[in-house]
Automatic annotation (TrEMBL):
Residues 25-135 form the CBM2 domain. SMART domains: CBD_II. Its EC number is 3.2.1.-. It comes from Kibdelosporangium persicum. The active site is at 231. It is an enzyme of class 3 (hydrolase). This is Glucanase.
Length: 563
């Protein structure tokens, strides 16, 4: 989450080309398609991903892709494959952990390279010696705007109220003020599909949703959150699937969910899916060589299971005509720096094209899920100067381009369109806990004695640091859920159910795969991802997802707008 210098060209030049490979035996009758995407480019360097889809017989003994560069491009560091180059001829072979490629499966090796002059794409590719001339759009992909979906599913629709959360909220003193608000239904483990103690399963929710709809349009919000190696940069929401368990994610998690959502009984619901919180941005910000790197995120980048898992979820769920996929887009206090912003949109485009998906399976993006970043900072803007110093130079903003979620969400929407997503993608913003009201809320700008005094005196987000994310002390409920509040914003939503913990403040044994993250411990002095600040977390918190009454009470007290 910290500012880091953009990756320099010198780093790329220093990266070594992978060692020579031994050619695998060719499999029978391969057919294939290749999407070669230049993901970013500067004077003499570029990054590219090469999505290879096997349209022929299943390959088991290893694969090799070859192409010729039209110019003087030179491959540097590569991933998800073993790269070598002789003159302008590049060969990529399968990584040691991925020798097979089933019919219809996609692998996405990528690389950083250098060039001079122009950087034209290679014209032809060969997979195991056979030219790839498959179509670039899989036939199963619904054309954009095919009429089955509305542009903004929230317009003219009610939104599902989760009776399980509603009962817990109503049981709290003062809780009835918000107990009828819609919140997200989290499928946070395989067992959640059929239901766990105190939480009904997916079908029971959908049956209830049909009741609540009463024949009128109704949005049902479900969170898809169970990737292999989940939450690689933190421990509080680690999941049940290990880093290499992509096959289980597909067959035991996504496939059953898709089967239920696709049931014709639910065809009149507008099903909004929130796709895999925090996963893809972690592959940009929390990997080597950043100072914020975490080994588990390096693993998830190298094995491709976040990208391929998200692609699979998008393809499977996007094939259901009344499903609206929204991909998680972090928040401004994470991706609002230049070196994170475009790269995150790019990896989302890469994931949206993985595992047989296309960008048309993405209806939009969601910012601030389960986070605390303020919707609006009313008392300063990114363009303000104090004594000749920009707000961007303040310790709080720290060169970020955005001061709040609204400005970030609108800009990120445009960035995703530049990255190749349909021009009508829409944004959601999770406003469940970003209200920052109560008696400590500033009522005007800070003093102009220094840029820090100005920003710190005027900011409504009262966290110790923007990178703090666990059970933040002093937070309040944010804007109530609302359709189409601003241009480009499909809705304000409460995806994180207020009152459910972000993580335990001490270690608690459990069978949910949850770890103990010290960012949830109020005595923790931080790490590079929050620039070594105190965690700002509330004490005595239970496991993530469990009811945290004291936090619920504080959210009510500090609601903004007030209740
Ligand atoms: C937890 C999930 C929970 C969700 C909603 C996440 O932090 O890991 O188990 O369902 O929050 O409260």
């Amino acid at each position: 989450m910290r500012l880091q210098a953009a990756l320099g060209v010198t780093t790329l030049l220093a990266a070594t080309t992978a060692a020579a490979l031994t050619a695998p035996a060719a499999s029978a009758a391969p057919g294939c398609k290749v999407d070669y995407t230049i993901t970013n480019q500067w004077n003499t360097g570029f990054g590219a991903t090469v999505a290879i889809t096997n349209l022929g017989d299943s390959i088991s003994g290893g694969w090799t892709l070859e192409w010729e560069f039209p110019g003087d491009q030179q491959v540097g560091q590569g991933w998800n494959g073993q790269f070598s180059q002789q003159a302008n001829r590049v060969t990529v072979s399968n990584p040691p952990w991925g020798a097979s490629l089933a019919t219809g499966a996609t692998v996405s090796p990528g690389f950083n390279g250098t060039f001079t002059g122009t950087n034209d794409k290679p014209a032809t590719f060969k997979l195991n010696g056979v030219t790839c001339n498959g179509t670039t759009t899989p036939p199963t992909d619904p054309p954009p705007g095919n009429g089955a979906r509305v542009d903004n599913p929230y317009v003219g629709a009610k939104v599902y109220v989760n009776p399980d959360w509603s009962a817990r909220a109503a049981a709290e003193p003062g809780g009835s003020a918000i107990a009828n608000q819609p919140t997200g239904v989290w499928m946070d483990r395989i067992a959640a599909i059929n239901g766990t103690t105190g939480a009904r399963g997916l079908r029971a929710h959908l049956d209830e949703a049909v009741q609540q709809a009463g024949g009128s349009p109704l949005v049902f919000q479900v969170v898809i959150y169970n990737l292999p190696g989940r939450d690689c940069s933190a421990l509080a929401s680690n999941g049940e699937l290990k880093a290499d368990e992509l096959p289980r994610y597909k067959t035991e998690y996504i496939d059953p969910i898709a089967a239920i959502l696709g049931d014709s009984k639910y065809a009149d619901l507008r099903i909004v899916t929130i796709i895999e919180i925090d996963s893809l941005p972690n592959l940009i910000t929390n990997v080597t060589p950043r100072p914020t790197a975490v080994p588990q995120c390096d693993t998830m980048k190298a094995n491709g299971n976040y990208v391929n898992g998200v692609g699979y979820a998008l393809a499977k769920l996007g094939a259901i005509p009344n499903v609206y996929n929204y991909v998680d887009a972090g928040h401004h206090g994470w991706l609002g720096w230049d070196d994170n912003f475009s790269a995150s949109a790019q990896i989302m485009a890469q994931a949206a094209r993985a595992s047989g998906s296309t960008v048309n399976n993405v209806h939009g993006f969601i910012a601030n899920t389960a986070n605390y970043s303020a919707l609006r900072e009313p008392y300063f803007t990114i363009n303000d100067n104090v004594n000749g110093q920009s707000v961007r130079q303040s310790k709080w903003v720290d060169w970020n381009r955005y001061t709040d979620e609204l400005s970030y969400a609108k800009a990120f929407r445009e960035e995703t369109v530049r990255a190749g997503f349909p021009s009508n993608v829409g944004m959601l913003i999770d406003t469940s806990r970003n209200g920052w009201g109560g008696s400590a809320r500033p009522t005007g700008p800070g003093p102009t004695t220094s840029v820090d005094a100005y920003v710190n005196g005027g900011r409504v987000d009262r966290r110790i640091h923007l990178g703090n994310w666990c059970n933040q002390a002093g937070a309040g409920l944010g804007e109530r859920p609302k359709a189409a509040p601003e241009a480009g914003i499909d809705a304000y939503v409460w995806i994180k159910p207020p009152g459910e913990s972000d993580g335990s403040s001490k270690e608690i044994a459990n069978e949910e795969g949850k770890g103990f993250d010290r960012m949830c411990d109020p005595t923790y002095t931080g790490n590079p991802r929050n620039n070594n600040n105190m965690s700002g977390a509330k004490a005595d918190a239970p496991l993530s997802g469990h009811w945290f009454s004291a936090q619920f009470q504080e959210l009510l007290r500090n609601a903004y707008p007030p209740l």
